[in-house]
Amino acid sequence: MRILILGGDGYLGWPTAMALAAEGHEVLTIDNYLRRLLAERTRSQALMRNPDLQERAEIFAAAGGPKIRVAIGDCANYLFLSRVVAEFQPEAAIHYAEQPSAPYSMIGFDEARLTLNNNLNTTFNLIWAVLERAPDCHIVKLGTMGEYGTPKIDIEEGWIEIEHAGRKDKFLFPRQAGSLYHTTKVLDTDLLWFYVRSSGLRVTDLMQGPVYGLSTAETDLDKRLMPNFHYDDIFGTVVNRFLVQAIAGIPLTVYGKGGQTRGYLNLRDTLQCVRLAIQNPVKRGELRILNQFTETLSVNDIALRVRAAAARLDLEVRVDHVANPRKEAEDHYYNPKNSGLLELGLKPSLMTEDVLTAMLRELVPYRHEIDLKKVRPRVSWSGGAR
Amino acid sequence: MRILILGGDGYLGWPTAMALAAEGHEVLTIDNYLRRLLAERTRSQALMRNPDLQERAEIFAAAGGPKIRVAIGDCANYLFLSRVVAEFQPEAAIHYAEQPSAPYSMIGFDEARLTLNNNLNTTFNLIWAVLERAPDCHIVKLGTMGEYGTPKIDIEEGWIEIEHAGRKDKFLFPRQAGSLYHTTKVLDTDLLWFYVRSSGLRVTDLMQGPVYGLSTAETDLDKRLMPNFHYDDIFGTVVNRFLVQAIAGIPLTVYGKGGQTRGYLNLRDTLQCVRLAIQNPVKRGELRILNQFTETLSVNDIALRVRAAAARLDLEVRVDHVANPRKEAEDHYYNPKNSGLLELGLKPSLMTEDVLTAMLRELVPYRHEIDLKKVRPRVSWSGGAR
Fold this sequence. Notes:
homodimer, alpha/beta, seven-stranded parallel sheet, three-stranded mixed sheet, 14 strands
């Protein structure tokens, strides 16, 4: 299958490109290195130096992997994106090309506006490039579980039937996100759903929880193929940050009470989920929404698991409850459904002590690269001060 | 009160500016003439020539009206808007500064992208200009009843309590719009609601139905003060278009079966509603949503009323059911609530034969200005062909 990956240089984009190429698909990746630029600007560089995308593709090929094509350019530029889509004629397009950090989107006006315009315009351009140039292409869009927020009712997979005053209808499940970044994903969903209805687009929206992990079957070929591993407060996800704190011998920074519960998944499971979505495309005029996580955990649960895993390596871990820089419930009901991907065949690998211990072992060699300034919260939801 | 009107040159913006100035408020209007430009480009010019905004303000003052201040500039330009907000320190900001045409937004990529970026960025910039420069200012945002679409359940005013699997929570009423233009208003609502929650903005979102009318108390001072009256298929609303067709002696163009039902209101009632919203501001951190219409009517109902009114002037009216260029239900359940504005004191003036006959009389002198090319549907939802 011809698969286009937007945001192919990202934490998820690059491992996805390798995994799908390894399965025999023809893969073309696009990136403009926006995340690298914003990480530099905010002093949130990844733990290891990552070769550029073309170099990564060369290293992968040299290690025996199949060819991955690379196009450097901005998906928010329609001329560029529509030309790539017209020439490549993708059968599936995986859309990761968004500014992915909630704290970044809350720094101030410039960062919020960049997030809004980049994320909306990449999605909008992909919609139109597909409609105009490859209308049968299946769009696989990465959404986020954060679109739903933390409602007091069970979270269904994308849709809900509402009974009201004796009548019934089916709607998108209500969305109410906790950051501007997450809100742009809500807007993406609204846009995609409109064009699915009006123009017969084929879309799978993967509502993903926070991802952890730093290796996949393909990164094992050569360490330089590892994804960009951010451990900071802006581009790092919580599990990755905690593991680095454990290695560095500094306290884990739990925001507030730590009862914040989310659905998590391993990087290797993200690859499975995306593969399953592509192998099971939807028909024209259908928006399928799948909740993409394997288990729900509170921040406190994660801190305890990281501590237990670290103890196996004789690392002593303290947990610090720091003032929560975000506006969010710290103790709340959370019951999201996730049967859709399991029914498609997902085999979860859970966040066990074994898994966390293996990650810690992989991180130990990079201990001297850790910059402690990066792991304390620097962005506040109430002020955006840096 | 110091009141800022974004989009003060518009069909609603200009009458609003005069009405609020006449009540003694200090009014500053902003416009960049985007709608005039797009009307020219699509050959959808208004029926009467409208003086520019500065000239309108001069004519109004010469006719004995109070001073209306004018700033020409683009609200999608943050430097411009934030400077105006900082200097004027508005206590209320009425936001009409959006590309307002559903058909325009469905012509093609360029028109859709302009609509998305203009509408989202004006709203986003207003949010930030208020947060940074006048955080106590009450934003009165014009939304649209079209955000809700035509669900099979009763439409509440903005919010709904959902009971699901034995638990309850309150959410934004589900939105599912029928054009890209209407979808941008859904995105506006999502954005406003996020910043209300995260930053304590004060917002009233007026979910308005299609407006009809061409005069107000202030336009009676001088004919040149009339709002820009569009009767075409792109910028004209259905009632205004039907009245012009009646005057021109050509059939009324009902799209499809004509069972499409919406909530309508008179231009004079829009002014009442906006005034009531401003007189009753919400507190910080509150998003109030009011459904702004006075009666629900099908397109067929309106055609019959226009025919009856025209008969009084000895105008014979035929009704043509033309192929529906839109994708919409032509026969559907529709039961929207609108008690909020009535409770605040709205006194509706309904679409009676008297009201329609009066409008016809006002239009007769412009009969020779009518361009018949403008009233047939030129934009199709399924192809966007012009």
